[in-house]
């Protein structure tokens, strides 16, 4: 059902291990279907998947998966899919808000004690605090889960659903770039990992809009760039938007004789995605 | 909320004032404006945020928020009203009463049109089950809701006067306190999906003019950061609860150089922008004479599905009647002999002069 997307991206043929996919979702479009295509593509290759969910819930992916023909909950129990949900951390941080202040008011010593332990094992992220460790705290569960999965799975695909939400947790550009660098170095150490990063961009001034700024850096380092744009002419009944696909690896392009940049139009349907080359009615 | 779908299927928790969506089995609640429900795909999915970008003077944004609150009171949902610009008690006191003559929104299916039978299938009637309960009401803006009903309803107010909680990473602790209030309301009312109350209910959160001048921080740099972080935390709280939030923001007040309005749109699930004609050049334009403003759909999120709902038309306008706030597809007014406002009408007599028409001219040989 997402085969047309996978074949258009070329991820069904190319070995993605050690490669990075960037999905750029321009404001006004919904690139979630590409993430789902990457998920189902990895499942077909029987790769492990580590979902890092900042934007959608796991329930969303399960429900979409049921429509596309796989059961994420069962796969999660089997260990083929693991989930890191920083959204849940944000919710629990709000819940812990009152308790923390009570702790600090009562005994000051315990607080200092806790800080010492924090430096040893990084601790649980708390986005309500100004903590320079926050990026590491957010990343370490990802690394742990990937290492755990690699024991049983041959290769793991790390999928980050919306990196731009890190900015909404008031992380600086430097911190977010650190997150990306952690992902990259993880990939350097473990050759059987591939990374897929989705990020949202706004077409604002990149000097002031941080999500746009990071997208420039990400485009520089990724091997496959998929940018999903809304139609510049507005709403159409037959077309949902436009996809630009750019492969930056020369060997891959030469092998399959792909152009450097290909453009498709797509239409989202309830259970599938239709892809067209501009001008034709369906992708052959 | 998304993970509660399975729960919803197995148990079907009956909550007054809700209905399951036909597309993805998501539980929906009404915005209080039936025609708006129709446009956004049946209603508001439980566990989501709807963002209303206010019009220039904020009056229509406030009316929509009042409808949302009134619908909550009528369907006996719990309500949390937050505002720094207005007194929440005043907002609640001004809620409109249900219009007596029209209780349910969709007309019964067997009602046949007498005239223009060809058009009887024009409007799609939502056939999703509502459990015999009315879904969405019309409200009479001339009457305020009965005080006894308001007192009987469980309504929580938040006006930011008493900030109890603080957090380092927020510049303005009003945001922190409101977040904590939301979280406490979810916990105390057992709205979380993990809790199992005897009777399921819905929490409606109405936040008026978030990020307005009254939410100013001491430092200007932290302002957008606080707003975005608040949205992110609110979203993560709501995703695991039987709660819906309607947030209005004065988008035109923001310095949008870093795309903060778009970023809040991205953080909410449904985003609508109201553009009122009041005070603009469009007020005098004959094309818009039937309407009070335009409704721009900025975002309709896809929850639990690949494709988001898309309305038949995106050229939408709204008009405010005494008993109805109506959102409809923008139509040009019909051109009748009496309507002479258009430019081409004035050209016609000129054209007649040159031909050998009714009036003879000296130049016409």
UniProtKB/TrEMBL annotation, chain A:
InterPro entries cross-referenced by the UniProt entry: ELP6, P-loop_NTPase
Any single GO CC term annotated in Swiss-Prot or TrEMBL for this entry: elongator holoenzyme complex
Pfam families: ELP6
One GO-annotated biological process of the protein: tRNA wobble uridine modification
Pathway(s): tRNA modification; 5-methoxycarbonylmethyl-2-thiouridine-tRNA biosynthesis
Similarity field: Belongs to the ELP6 family.
Protein name: Elongator complex protein 6
Species the sequence originates in: Neodiprion lecontei
Upper classification of the organism: Eukaryota, Metazoa, Ecdysozoa, Arthropoda, Hexapoda
TrEMBL record, chain B:
Keywords (A to Z) from UniProt: Cytoplasm, Nucleus, tRNA processing
Cellular localisation: Cytoplasm; Nucleus
Protein's UniProt name: Elongator complex protein 4
Family indicated by similarity: Belongs to the ELP4 family.
GO BP terms in the entry: tRNA wobble uridine modification
One Pfam family linked to the record: PAXNEB
This protein's GO CC annotations: cytoplasm; elongator holoenzyme complex; transcription elongation factor complex
Species of provenance: Neodiprion lecontei (Redheaded pine sawfly)
UniProt entry tagged with the keyword tRNA processing: yes
CDD domains: Elp4
Pathway involvement of the protein, from the record: tRNA modification; 5-methoxycarbonylmethyl-2-thiouridine-tRNA biosynthesis
